[in-house]
Amino acid sequence: MKKYFLPVASAMLLLAGCNVLDKEPLTSIAPSNFFKSAVDAEAALTAVYDGLQSKGCYAEVLNLVGNMPSDDCTSSNNDVRVLDDINWNSASGQVYDVYHDNYRAINRANAVIKYVPGVAGMSANRRDQIVGEARFVRALCYFNLVRLYGAVPLRLEPTESGDPAQLNLPRTPADQVYARIVDDLNLAAAALPEVQVARATKGAANALLGRVQLTQRNWAAAKDAANRVLTGAGGYSLQGFNSLYPANNNRGESVFEVQFSGSTDGGTFFTLPDIVMPTPPATYSFPKFNIPTLFVTGSAARATDLTSVVDTLNDQRWSYQGTVNAGRNHASYVDGRGGANDRGPFVWKWRSDGGNFNSPDNYYVLRFGEVYLTAAEASNEVGDPAATVIGFLNPIRQRAGLAPLTPGSPEAASKATLRAEIDKQRRLELAFEGERWFDLLRYTRHEQADGTARHAVTALDLIQQKRGSRDVNYLLFPIPLSELNTNPQAQQNPGY
């Protein structure tokens, strides 16, 4: 199943397609008149998943936000210049897109959570599972928001009227938003099955919970969540790295993917592959986004570029895998051999013909490989013995063709050296999958909270590189101008 559209799903899209920023209430269909049957409940859940396919979520912008400000990617294209230069403001398009589209998905999830428990004609188990899936999506979207904007309005009810008291909420402190995310994920994990194709599972809820707990530096909780995935009954396993791409629900390593079909039903277009791949296979030739910082020369080269950590000879995530239509395949990137706009390194984790900016490839949100890295990082930070830490790390190294570490290896000499190795493997493993900037933000917060912790690169280091000062205000996005203009209770982040 590649696309979540059922015949009555369009009704739910009208119901829950409220523009949070513009404060349009749900006027087309009353929720009490829609949630009447099991078919309605399934259609409503379909619309929740559809929300993740929007431009400001996983069709394009979240990935750009997670890559372009980081040391992994660059671009000469002016459309992403504000991200590349860390020079965004409250009117920047990406700042608006992420905020708007994640809240739209949240609004749909809120409707399901509120009304599906009252739907007759279906089993209690299925009702609970549908609500659990909606809670997973709501938690994912709030996690996207709180990492980028900090305190955000915590909307837990669907928008159903034009009442300013319902529409205009103040920002909720970040720690309270995180508490709701953790609560939703625990409730989701309890309700979801171990296995189901193309939708959230118990493993997905726990894998995301591990990422959330890492972000909060709740090391023991992060380790516990990761271990529940590693030892659970989800049937996950590491696969050959090059074979992972593109995502298509058929990999044992897939924990959660956002689904795309390449069709136009519902108006969803997966534009990301076309704007990061060379031509061919991309539809058009133009200066692409997310260009890997490999082999950069001259004044543009930086000490933190990918070139400083990538081994293109021995690491199978980066070594030559054969020739493809785009050029030389190096698993994570392709060495394009086309014209001026299509020559050099390009992201190669989506590979299908763009089909006029509408790829049929899926988007990995969570992979089993990341769960090992979550466990390794959390294990190291709680002070586990080196042998325990490298037990989580070695499967990732060995899958890449690298020698396993032992307690006597230099990388395992101390907590600090293990931290450096885990950071490095996370960067190499998850490159271009939209997490690098968020990891750099985590590392900054870690150093701020623990004076003994050091990471090779943090977000503040890149802010210094690109802006000339270590301006902590750029650790967050601004609240979009359109939200400030429509919500009198919204307050802007410092520095904007």
Please specify the SSE layout and strand pairing.
Layout (H helix, E strand, L loop, with lengths): L8 H8 L14 H4 L3 H14 L3 H5 L1 H7 L5 E2 L6 H4 L8 H23 L8 H26 L14 H4 L6 H18 L10 H14 L3 H12 L23 E5 L13 H5 L14 E2 L29 E3 L2 E4 L2 E5 L5 E5 L15 E5 H14 L4 H14 L15 H16 L5 H14 L9 H9 L13 H6 L10
Antiparallel strand pairs: 1-3, 2-8, 4-5, 5-6, 6-7
Helix pairs in contact: 1-3, 1-7, 3-7, 3-8, 7-8, 8-10, 10-11, 11-12, 11-14, 12-14, 14-15, 14-16, 15-16
Describe the structure.
This protein has helices spanning 9-16, 31-34, 38-51, 55-59, 61-67, 81-84, 93-115, 124-149, 164-167, 174-191, 202-215, 219-230, 272-276, 368-381, 386-399, 415-430, 436-449, 459-467, 481-486; strands spanning 73-74, 254-258, 291-292, 322-324, 327-330, 333-337, 343-347, 363-367. Strands 4-5-6-7 form a four-stranded antiparallel beta sheet, with no helix packed on it. A two-stranded antiparallel ribbon has the order 1-3. A hairpin with a 2-residue loop joins β4 (322-324) and β5 (327-330). The model is unreliable at 1-28 (pLDDT under 50). It is an alpha+beta fold. α1 crosses α3 and α8 packs antiparallel against α10. Residues 316-496 form the RagB/SusD domain. Keywords: Cell outer membrane, Membrane, Signal.
